[in-house]
Amino acid sequence: MAAILKTAILLMSFGFACVAGLDFSKTGYDPKDLESEGTLKALYDSWATKHGRLHESPGAKETRYSIFKDNLEYIHEHNKKARDYVLGLNQFADLTHDEFKSQYAGTKLNRRREERRPFTYADVTLVPDSIDWRSLGAVSEVKNQGSCGGCWAFSTTGAIEGINQIVTGELVSLSEQELIDCDTESEQGCNGGIMDDAFDYVADNGGLHNESAYPYQEVQGTCMRDSLDGPVVTIHSAADVTRKNELNLQKAVANQPVSVAIEAGGKPFQFYSGGVFTGDCGTELDHGVLAVGYGTDAGTDYWIVKNSWGPEWGESGFIRLERNIDAKEGKCGITLGASYPVKTGPNPSPRPPSPPAPRPDDSGVCCHDQQHCCPYDKPICDLDTNRCLASTRDRFGVAMLEQTPATWRSVKPYQKQFSTDSTLDEKESRSYA
Ligand SMILES: *[C@@H]1O[C@H](CO)[C@@H](O)[C@H](O)[C@H]1NC(C)=O
């Protein structure tokens, strides 16, 4: 009975559903779908199929269907008012708002300490009216954090991917899992973290491996970084954008993608599907994301923000947040926790195969093959028998010593000591030091 009543109310509220210009690709429904219980059920079934929802029982399905209808009502009520932004039936359409909040925006993003590091773009005077780091090649594909509250790691990798592309010209997707598994001193893995601290970790620990070298697992695991020897992307340090000032944030974003913290747990956020978000949201920072540009649309200024909820959410995974609003905190608190990595040089070249070098305690001369050495008192190399002879008449000699590859730091001193006709020039030996 209650269900029938609810449907009746739902249908009544959809009764005036002559909404012009509702784009099915954004909303995920057609107002015609709201005409009867039958069409609603069909809509739910096709949504559930698309999203691979398997229900344990008919009761569970009924519960989800009912939440779905509540959400649809909310979404449609919003869309009827034809605001600047559209809501739609995305992957969160069968979650209650509390479920959504605790799973996707419930991460502990401790309010950041006051800025510790100077804002390096404070003196920038010329900023473009708009910029989009996506079209400039500095933004990787939209990723999906899934059920792990590791937004902070996605925000961190995004910012480093950006500055790395700007400095080196190469866009390399970086490993969130490495941060989640290894940066455990100041972060809480899938329960949250802070981008500033993660930048410090990367600066202090020799960089990050790429996404395919250390792929995302959606759960925290043991740190594997020491067993990887692939290329890394390094940064020098991090800086904080001086808070409560959208112009400061603009100066920073004009120069590189910037990690920002926002409140993303609001209901409109759950279903945001396109347009410039001008809706209500607070400033209780609960989500780490990445500002990748800004612009103006029909007189409304906006930030372009990359999220980590997959490409289905929002505008292919991005949201445009209203910019230059009255409150200093900015939309959803976007000016309150903005930070970015500083990169001053290229990435280290992958470690080359070590050149052969004599053992530290083998004082002697090296043979022409540069692989064997003999003691000073038996300096003649007989490479046919691998023996060192005192003179051409010496019939026995001693066994040659084979050089072992130098360790990382030892190349330079040993070379000085032993190489006679070394083929390694100064430049080469410097790069190993
Ligand atoms: C990622 O790292 C692997 C080694 O672990 C390497 O083979 C691959 O080339 C790297 N990819 C990029 C894009 O740098």
TrEMBL record:
Q: Which is a GO BP term held by this UniProt record?
A: proteolysis
Q: Where is the Peptidase C1A papain C-terminal domain?
A: 127-342
- Matching Pfam families, A to Z? Granulin, Inhibitor_I29, Peptidase_C1
Q: Which domain of life is it from?
A: Eukaryota
Q: Does the keyword field hold Protease? A: yes
Q: InterPro entries, from UniProt?
A: Granulin, Papain-like_cys_pep_sf, Pept_asp_AS, Pept_cys_AS, Pept_his_AS, Peptidase_C1A, Peptidase_C1A_C, Peptidase_C1A_papain-like
Q: Where is the signal peptide?
A: 1-21
Can you give the residue ranges of the Cathepsin propeptide inhibitor domain?
44-100
Q: Does the keyword Signal apply?
A: yes
Give the residue ranges for region: Disordered.
Answer: 337-362
Name the residue ranges with Pro residues bias: 347-358
What keywords would UniProt list here?
Disulfide bond, Hydrolase, Protease, Signal, Thiol protease
UniProt GO molecular function: cysteine-type peptidase activity
User: According to its UniProt record, which protein family does this protein belong to?
Assistant: Belongs to the peptidase C1 family.
* Entry protein name: Cysteine protease
Q: Which organism is it from?
A: Riccia sorocarpa
List the lineage, top down: Eukaryota, Viridiplantae, Streptophyta, Embryophyta, Marchantiophyta
